[in-house]
Amino acid sequence: MGTTHLESVPEPKYWHLKTVLSEALDSEFTVGEILPNERELAARFGVARATLRQALEQLELEGRLQRRRGVGTTVAPPRVGVAVGTGQQAWPGGGDDAWRAVDSTDAVPPSTVATALEIPCEQSVHIVRRSRVSHGQPVAAELLYVPHASVPDLSAIDTANQAARARAVLRELQRLPLDTQDRAVELGSARADDAKELDRLPGAPVLVVTTRFFAAGRTAALSVATYRADTCRLTFGASGGVEIHHGPERQAS
């Protein structure tokens, strides 16, 4: 990292410093590398530590840095692509190794979910919980709601292992011919449960991707996946071809 003259620029000091630091991350550091401590960085750039913290906090919000307890501030891995185009039509768990089945419970879903599934509000469903990890860190958590009618043969599967039961629900679901699916994406704030799973503070920005799966002319399942907004980006189209990366050596495709 080099030094820079911050006094001559009209923008806030921390914002200009954020730009300089971002360029240094692209050219001088690798994913997972630990940055020098705040005292060293502040001295190198000739700024107050408060200014430096503002710049680091902004880079963390943008997903360029991660602050890890007991480790320090490290360079974050590339953002995970979240495909929201119409080209990928597949049941959850259909050969997607990025997701890990956590558990499965039988419970009454929220009324909004029951309405989307077109089932009575008091009717229980299978609720499969899955998590997604990238570069050793959690980036997404999913709740998959599956009506009993979508997996009628599941009752024959007897296991006390909740992860195994979750995988069984997914396998049975894939027996249905998938007609189509639709997705909706919105920006939200992490609830307490989501924040705990995603290793974020409650209220942290998240991307909520809701997917409805249709089979035999009805809604066969509903997925609500919560992604960390600082580590994920959206891709559109059949090939997910809209991607913008950081770094001079990479190009937008």
Description:
With 253 residues, the protein is α+β, with helices and mostly antiparallel strands. It has 2 domains: 63 residues, Orthogonal Bundle (Arc Repressor Mutant, subunit A), CATH 1.10.10.10; 156 residues, Chorismate lyase (3-Layer(aba) Sandwich), CATH 3.40.1410. The chain has 6 helices and 10 strands. The strands form 3 sheets. A 6-stranded antiparallel beta sheet has the order 4-5-6-9-8-7. A two-stranded antiparallel ribbon has the order 1-2. It has a two-stranded parallel ribbon with strand order 3-10. A hairpin with a 2-residue loop joins strand 8 and strand 9. Helix 1 packs across helix 3 and helix 2 packs across helix 3. The chain is elongated and about 65 Å long. The C terminus is likely disordered.
Which key phrases capture this entry?
six-stranded antiparallel β-sheet, alpha+beta, disordered C terminus, 253 residues, Chorismate lyase, 6 helices, Arc Repressor Mutant, subunit A
Low-confidence stretches: 240-253
Give the overall pLDDT as a whole number. 82
N-to-C span: 29 Å
Beta percentage is 25-35%
Let me know the number of strands: 10
Envelope shape: elongated
Topology-level CATH name of the largest domain: Chorismate lyase
* Spatial arrangement of strands, main beta sheet: 4-5-6-9-8-7
Number of helices: 6
How many structural domains can be distinguished in the coordinates? Answer: 2
What would you say the CATH architecture of the largest domain is?
A: 3-Layer(aba) Sandwich
Share in helix: 10-25%
